[in-house]
Amino acid sequence: MTHHARRRAVVLLSGGLDSTTTLAIAIASGYEAHALTVRYGQRHAGEIEAARRVAADLRAVEHAEVSVDLGRFGGSALTADLPVPKDREPAAMSDIPVTYVPARNTVLLSLALAWAETLQATDLFIGVNAVDYSGYPDCRPGFLAAFERLAGLGTKAGVEGATFRVHAPLLHLSKADIIRRGIELGVDYALTTSCYDPDAEGRACGRCDACLLRRRGFAEAGVPDPTAYNPGVSTGS
Amino acid sequence: MTHHARRRAVVLLSGGLDSTTTLAIAIASGYEAHALTVRYGQRHAGEIEAARRVAADLRAVEHAEVSVDLGRFGGSALTADLPVPKDREPAAMSDIPVTYVPARNTVLLSLALAWAETLQATDLFIGVNAVDYSGYPDCRPGFLAAFERLAGLGTKAGVEGATFRVHAPLLHLSKADIIRRGIELGVDYALTTSCYDPDAEGRACGRCDACLLRRRGFAEAGVPDPTAYNPGVSTGS
User: Fold this and answer.
1) For testing the chain B interface, which of A36, A109, A118 should be mutated: the one with the most B CBs within 10 Å?
2) Per the domain annotation, does B115 fall within a domain?
3) Assigned domain for A202 exists
4) Structure letter (DSSP) for residue A136
5) Closest Cα partner for A109 from A66, A75, A49, A161?
6) By residue range, what is the domain housing residue B215?
7) ipTM of this model?
8) pTM of the prediction?
């Protein structure tokens, strides 16, 4: 049996449910996955630890962590000291959320592109989702296509004829669909974290937008929710 | 006399000759300039110090420094331990240089965009130049236009109707033209640094591509070159 080099891909990995499923999909699709975690001034370090656990568990060939202090610019509850909204109805989440980080996916994809170019890779994976995060402009198909075009124009590889592709395999999936797909691929969601506002022990608040979407997803998928919640939280059904 | 709020702009400032002239042009054009220096794993800290001197001297209203470790990805003489080419002919410089940093301007512009969005600014300035740096794909007009389009699709402001503009006022100027324009605007080029390979005292090598272009620019502009060179260097004419 001969070994063929697998195609390399850079996979953005936050340590959350969506990016973890995306990493599993990239690997299942035959890519050699180089996982990239960007520390952009998040309020808690639990995401970084989750990303490390996930990269090891799913066997990414490499996991890089790069820091960029977007918090210097302010403007978001995820990087500044604004209150995280709790117990919002799904309809309210379709507005642009207060947790919006300015130009976040532009920054994340540009860093993924920089690494891809040094790896001679032209495939980028990002776990954006147009269903749950319709309020984020940089989670839309048109944005992703515009980035592919930019990548072709702004890199040595692109000028030499390479075509970059931004894979967003979750784009049109519901949270329940994402969870079902991940379970099929053997993802252990207990390793992941989604909460915008965990307690000191790293347990999820159960009430921010990310927790509510995640909880509803497990319920709709009919899969037990392995998330560690703060004991004060009613996890409902 | 009433005071009208000036339009804000984010100006990328490396501390080199080109970005310094760009900052002077942005201010002379009536913008309230927010200067952004990105530390991307450069090999020497002299650029950061030069950027601070320049931002203060030209009176940027604010100067932010953001670090992102592109050196983690390797791939360039500016961030890795490859030798910097010396004494190259201009024709050889038109190839993609070894000092090319992967996706650099994509990363720089994405960070400028993130700050612009929190400042409610839609004007970005970057000192790219298609004459001297024709070898860099991300210094071309098509790349800049693609970034403007991406910015409109990937930001809250863009979705709400704002149009982003990437100003590249040096794009079609020769190095001599850039220097003449800066001198008109009162730029003190002794504050700036361009060398890819300065000595321990921060003096320029005089022989890397950046030094050669800079020296030729001053000679062609008929302006005395204020650069501090390593004493071992023949500065020619």
Assistant:
1) A118
2) yes
3) yes
4) -
5) A66
6) 8-221
7) 0.88
8) 0.89
